[in-house]
Amino acid sequence: MIKKFKTVQKIVNKPTSVLTLLLTGCLAFGSMASAFGETAPQGVQMKEFSLLDTATDVVGSADFTPEGNKDGHFKLQLKLAQKTVINSVVLRSTDAYGKDNYQGVWRTNHVTTGWLLGIVQDKIVTTGSGTKHESVIINPGFRKDVKDPVGEFEGDLTFDLYASDNGTIKETQYYVLEIETPQGTITSKPITYKSPMISEDTSTSTTAPSTTPAPSSTPKPAESPLPSPGTTPSPAESPVPSPSTTPSPAGNPAPSPASSYDDESKDIAIHVSFKGNDIHFDDAQPVVKDGRTLVPFRQLFETLGFTVDWVEEGSVQKAIGTKDGLTIELTINSTNAHVNGSDTALDVPAQIIDGRTMVPLRFVSESSGYHVAFSSSGNVWSISIEDAVPGGSTDTDSDPAPTPSTEPTPTPQDDPTPTPTPEPTVEEVEPFVVKGYLRNLNGDPIPGVIINADNQLFSDSNLQDVTDENGHYRIELANLPTTWVMSTNFTRDYNGNEQRFYLKSDVDQPFAGSSGAVRNFTLKDVVGHIEIHPDFWSFSDDLPQFEMSDLEVTLTPVGPLFDGSAGKTITTHADVLSTGGHGVDNIPLGNYKISATWKLEGHAPLPMLVRVTGTSKYALSTEFDFHNPLGAPSIFVNQIDTKLDKQSEE
């Protein structure tokens, strides 16, 4: 019998006298977080509340204006059955149990003291060519009259919330959101980064999507050296030897839900791409051991064009890849590898982790003649495998994943790996001058973009220049005893929509004005994700329980992608997103047609109906594009609803 879930919402009635209490500039009403024995406002449901990142700067303490500090960027999804007035929205910092910890309160009007909570609504507009998204600022500043409501809303709504940084915005902090209506106040449970509140789904963890791998009835084509992202090998092609010949943990070929392996990257999202195309690892995700990134053997080798083989000689197990006169042989748990018969020492051996054969990514890639580049942003690591630059170095002694220390995320300046794109020219550093280039990953210049040099001595005192036809800029700095940091924020049109990009310089380090600096910018990793919301009530009780990992999603490009390429069809399974919820991550920016199929073991595949969230009609397939929420230029998203096609059950 299928399980159906609803999130229990709690109501808060705040006495007027409580609203005037202050404690270190914040309201102390942790004990007022909920009132038992009452019901939530009728027809009001908080479907999702999550912290996306702490990397934007679009609001200040009192109005919708950047002030040089990073905001907390949250996502809110509401379902309002009828027109509902929202009087105020309040974000509180709390402990894990929802009790105020007095680190900050953010709000939309003077219902409490605190800082501004900026709200941007994602509105879907239907045109003759399809649907598009518009970002509308709901509150450009404080509503100073406590009686002035935020607005009246109805239907399925998506909002981006921005909490101005008061010095305590951080991804390890817990937060609770309160939405006040005339009928009462609905309150979220405490959330933190990667731990969202999601209704109608018990799974909110991002660490273990499922205790069993997603089944696939479609075998991977043996003749394809570069499989489509997300393709799952059939059991016969699995890189892990069969349980009868391999000492599989506890005799169970499925990955354990709680591995004994201490993954150094458990709080890091690792994205790997090959020549600009994301590699989707279905059966096992990349891990880090002793500062080295390990990835599933078969998928990496086949992506690089190898024919793979698994050999067992007594207790010795070997993973072997062969292509064009090159043979790489890795022995499980051995620090010696063989490349065309020559011994090569490894810092970390190939090994079996949770029933999956994992191999060192950099060693295999660079031994194959490719260049490996590493970059990081917050808790996201990006590793790209590209054709080697002529005359470049392939240093196998370094690895894109540095050994984690007390700081779990490496800063770009700590990464010794150069960017994959060579410098257009060699720039010389000049005192009191900062200069450089803005270009894309292919090295093409991006002209007409404002570059900002922000000094750290005074607020709102940027110096600027515009990139020329070669993508070059040059800024003469003021003679001040201060350091400077570089950034740029610009838009580009794609299919009639403006996509916004916020970039830090490739070397994101402050520098002294008296010394000057060269700071280049590279537009790269232009990817998005879709969030998938299933309608659990569309499944009849005589069907097995629906699991998101059993949902196969096919994305077919419609027209050129943002980078001008034709793109490739992506077939993969829904998974836990790095931002929370379920869907598909790391999709190259473009227009796509999406379809979905429920594939569960022992049951015939069942087609699903899909629609863009907020539209009225379901269909077997629909087209969508991406948008980026206002002020969050590094994030491109869309939301898709899906439900079972009732005709498929007949």
Automatic annotation (TrEMBL):
InterPro entries named in the record: CarboxyPept-like_regulatory, Cu_amine_oxidase-like_N, Mao_N_sf
Positions of region (Disordered): 186-263, 386-427
Compositional bias (Pro residues): 216-256, 401-423
Coiled coil: none
Record SUPFAM superfamilies: Carboxypeptidase regulatory domain-like, Copper amine oxidase, domain N
Highest taxon in the source lineage: Bacteria
Pfam families assigned to the protein according to its UniProt record, in alphabetical order: Cu_amine_oxidN1
Domain annotation Copper amine oxidase-like N-terminal: ranges: 275-380
Signal peptide interval: 1-35
Keyword Nucleus in record: no
Keyword Transport among UniProt keywords: no
Compositional bias per record (Low complexity), positions renumbered to this chain: 202-215
Keywords: Signal
Protein name per Swiss-Prot or TrEMBL: Copper amine oxidase-like N-terminal domain-containing protein
Taxonomic lineage of the native organism: Bacteria, Bacillati, Bacillota, Bacilli, Bacillales
